Amino acid sequence: MEFHQGRLLDHVHLRARDLAASKRFYRAVLAALCHQPTFETEQAIVFDELYIDQAESYRSHVHIAFQAVDPVAVHRFYEAGLANGGKDNGEPGERPYHPGYFAAFLLDPDGNNIEAVYHGPTTRSSADVVIRPLETDA
């Protein structure tokens, strides 16, 4: 089984009802996953390919999954999100999507479904990130 990531999306743009609340939420949950803003103004905040600004007319409603380095990071993400305006949408735990899939889900201040996921022990390529589960003795 292989997963190819990093080839399709250039960036994701979220439109927030309350930009200050979204900035607090995303600073907290992404810091829990060891990410800091790459750019910020009064009108927007950016974390690598994620761009968030103030909604003038419509808000986004999407599902975004962020990669976590281990299950501990998934727990940190979840707790940071709850403490910063997020709502529970699935406590940290294993999911049936594939062996080793460990995730937590939160609703951000605008109702976007935000996930942190750890895919289990993996190796990664470089050109387009290829994720292959490690063989283990069962």
Describe the overall structure:
The protein has 138 residues and is α+β, with helices and mostly antiparallel strands. It has two helices and twelve strands. The protein has helices at residues 19-32, 71-83, and strands spanning 3-5, 12-16, 39-40, 44-47, 50-54, 63-67, 87-88, 93-94, 102-107, 113-118, 122-124, 129-133. The strands form three sheets. Strands 6, 7, 8, 9 and 10 form a five-stranded mixed sheet that branches. Strand 3 (39-40) and strand 4 (44-47) form a beta hairpin. Helix 1 runs antiparallel to helix 2. The protein is elongated. It starts with a strand and ends in a 5-residue tail after the last strand.
Topology summary:
Elements lengths: L2 E3 L6 E5 L2 H14 L6 E2 L3 E4 L2 E5 L8 E5 L3 H13 L3 E2 L4 E2 L7 E6 L5 E6 L3 E3 L4 E5 L5
Parallel strand pairs: 2-5, 6-10
Antiparallel strand pairs: 1-12, 3-4, 4-5, 7-9, 8-9, 9-10, 11-12
Protein name: VOC family protein
Organism: Sinorhizobium psoraleae
Pfam families: Glyoxalase
In summary, what is this structure?
With 138 residues, the chain is an alpha+beta fold.
List keywords for this structure.
Glyas_Fos-R_dOase_dom; 138 residues; VOC_core; VOC family protein; Glyas_Bleomycin-R_OHBP_Dase
Q: How large, in whole angstroms, is the Cα Rg?
A: 15 Å
Q: Write the H/E string, N to C.
A: EEHEEEEHEEEEEE
**Global shape:** elongated
Name the beta content range.
25-35%
Largest sheet: 5 strands, mixed
Enumerate the spans where pLDDT stays under 50 for 5 or more consecutive residues. Answer: none
Which bin fits the share of residues in helices?
10-25%
Report mean pLDDT, rounded to a whole number. Answer: 87
Distance between the termini: 17 Å
Please report the total strand number as a whole number.
12
Structural class given helices, strands, pairing?
Answer: alpha+beta
Q: Count of DSSP helices?
A: 2
